[in-house]
Amino acid sequence: MGEDGSLTDLILAVVGFILSLILLPVQIIVSIGAINIANKLTLEQKVAFSDLSSSYRLFFRFLGSSILAGIIALIGFILLIIPGIILAIRLQFYMYLIVDKNAGAIEALQQSWNMTKGLTGRLFLFGSLLFLIEILGVLALGVGILVAIPVIYLAQAYVYRILADRGMVVEAAPVVPEPVLS
After folding, report:
1. Are the beta carbons of 29 and 63 closer than 8 angstroms?
2. What are the helix (H) ranges across the chain?
């Protein structure tokens, strides 16, 4: 009986890993779309359902910067937790910079670092408030998270917009469409 349980656990682990690999691109594309929509709403622009998937071309840039930001924050956490929290706070807007300003992966991390200079304490309190909103959403029978997540995206987009409008963000080059091969 012990062997069957181990085999079942192994199969479930492999299936779970494969499903997570399959769902990761979907999650990233939806996150890019949600950031796009939140940005548009903060600018009082019209949004459409198609905005959820219209920025798929940013996928690899978004993935690359997410991996870099994760590694940087992990190194900070290994160095006694507080540096990791500071690094995560300072780099948190890289996603918005990729979607809004078409920044490259490293450029987005650099600009996020620059635009959050001197605001680490305030952004920590802001992040704590967002975490509380998320916890309350989960505690509301799990259904509250359906309200909490959009509120969190909008709040982050609003703060990003304030920081971006302070002039700390440099415009990136416009996206040039790839030529169509016949």
Report:
1. no
2. 2-42, 59-78, 82-91, 94-101, 105-115, 120-139, 145-163
Is residue 140 scored above 50 in pLDDT? yes
Find, among 150, 56, 67, 51, the residue nearest to 108 by Cα.
67
pLDDT tens sequence across 98-131: 999 999 999 999 999 999 999 999 999 999 999 9
- Distance, CA of 71 to CA of 164 (rounded, Å): 25
Other CB atoms within 10 Å distance of the CB of residue 35: 24
Q: Are 112 and 101 in contact (CB under 8 A)?
A: no
Those residues whose C-beta lies under 8 Å from the C-beta of residue 28, and which sit 6 or more positions away, are 59, 62, 63, 66
Considering only the C-alpha atoms of the chain, give the largest distance between any 2 of them, rounded to a whole number of Å: 65
Tokens 């609003």 locate to 158
Instruction: Please choose, from the candidates 114, 60, 64, the residue with its C-alpha nearest in 3D space to the C-alpha of residue 91.
Output: 114
Name the burial class of residue 24, with classes exposed (0-12), middle (13-18) and buried (19+) by CB atoms within 10 angstroms of its CB: exposed
- Residue found under tokens 């940013």: 58
**What six digits make up the tokens of 115?**
């635009």
* Cβ 126 vs Cβ 159: under 8 Å: yes
Cα dihedral 86, 128, 92, 114, rounded to 10, equals: -60
Q: Count how many residues are written for the chain.
A: 182
